[in-house]
Amino acid sequence: MPSRSPAAAPAISSASSPERSLELRGIHKAFGSFVALQHIDLAVHKGEFICFLGPSGCGKTTLLRVIAGLEVQTRGEIRQNGRDISRLPPADRDYGIVFQSYALFPNLSVADNVSYGLVNRRLPRAQIRQRVTELVQLVGLPGSEGKYPAQLSGGQQQRIALARALATSPGLLLLDEPLSALDALERVRLRQEIRALQQELGVTTIMVTHDQEEALAVADRIVVMNQGAIEQVGSPQEVYREPASPFVADFVGKVNVLPGRVRQGRLELGSLVLPLAGAGAAGPDREVRVYLRPEDVLARPIDEGDPHVFDGAIEKIEFLGSYCHVHLAAPAFAPQGLIVYLSLNYLAERSLAIGSTLRLRLLQERVRVF
Fold first, then answer.
1. Pairing state of beta strands 172-176 and 96-98?
2. CA 129 → CA 53, 124, 145, 164, distances in Å?
3. How far separated are the first and last CA of the chain, in Å rounded?
4. Is 115 strand, coil or helix?
5. Region 204-215: what's the mean pLDDT?
6. 29 has which bridge partners?
7. pTM higher than 0.70, yes or no?
8. CA distances to 118, 176, 273 from 262, in Å
9. Pairing verdict, β 204-209 and 49-53
């Protein structure tokens, strides 16, 4: 599949649609001579959970801050529910936000932190108390209203920050790497709770993360960013299985990058010759890079005469619990080595160890060519 320039990400229609919660049109942001965002076009639908995913410095947090009005775009338009909010201050935009650092007021109780936005709206005290009780129960911390942030764990503080962001029933929830300061187990637990809560409330949500596993687990769609531009927008399955560029293929998930050659509509991987169809087969003979996920190399029983079969010798085994990263020497087509996933049970049943050889089969339909 040919590479696609980040600028070639599909633009949204200029017509406003009732199911669109947020539209970004031609967003550009520069800090002096440094361009942080360029050619950002995106439509977010009501009730959708979107993840901005990318490496540090790719512009994802800047884009979130532009949506929030904490940064002003150099040019471009932002519309929320059809209303132009491009130049509105944060207080006039309809969103709640949760930061990585929790940003709770240490001198205020849980109840006062959660009710902060409601008090500013001058709602009746009884209504505020009822809303605080509902939200504290919603995030799984009933009875904690009288506690202070210092008395809570990191995960509990982030739950309270989430309750505060939801207190005013915003149309948009913004999450700026909310789980990155937590330990691994708490991150998994809280991301599941955030996703369940988002689905229960139906609130449109945008989360910034650099953790690909996190994005794949919770998002309806992932926006992969690189160097201030959008590389690809798609469901987790689309982004993982059908990467639009070498960057996406390499950044999302583990992948083997192999040298190959396209000749007369066929892909040559060393001694393996695979048929190519569609755009991948078009054009003159050329050197290519082939991207292959570790799980797309199978060690199950193989038919005799299968053209996608090769032999590999085990050089290293990385134990990861129920499965292992197995590093292979496959001289037939991968001089730099190959990584495949094999289950712990498979290795044990066949008494495979470093130095063992085994037959493997490529899933030809999963091979990505750039």
1. parallel
2. 37, 9, 10, 13
3. 5
4. coil
5. 95
6. 37
7. yes
8. 63, 43, 10
9. parallel
